[in-house]
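Query form — protein Rrf2 family transcriptional regulator

QUESTION: What is the three-dimensional structure of this chain?
INPUT:
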Amino acid sequence: MQISKGVEWAAHAAALLNGLPPGRGLKAEALARFHDVPAAYMAKQLQALSKAGIAKTSRGAHGGYRLAKPADEITLWDITAAVDGKGPAFRCTEIRQNGPCGLKPEDCKRPCQIAAAFASAEQAFRDSLTAVSLADLAGQVVKDSEPDHLLAMMNWLNAEAEPLSEKSA
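ANSWER: The structure tokens for Rrf2 family transcriptional regulator are given below.
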């Protein structure tokens, strides 16, 4: 299973939005600059977070992104599903019915052992990501970071965060 770069970028953007003071937001360009990634691609990830109800955007000169709900209500699975979709990673094509020794469709009433194993692994993956909230990650970052780095991040946020207008997108 491969997780896209977009999921990584969206998770980092959401983590940074979590540190915003109330009533303030960050423009997509600022989030892209902070992570040194292309602005258009960061904007695409932020749009996915908005569409999923994870982030909220305000339009206009004083617009920007912020979290749409508390960080303890946003999981890594929510972010992953917002960017990469909720569909299964493995899709059984019933290859066991192909070839000279293929099974008849009526003999395939239960999922094959391979499909069942992939489904079980994928459920464990989703459960693992669902168990980690954005608030959990933020707490770990604070615990593991040097005070100077945290101060630099907070100073950057305070300098870049825009007061939000009331116009929501």
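ADDITIONAL NOTE: The mean pLDDT is 92.
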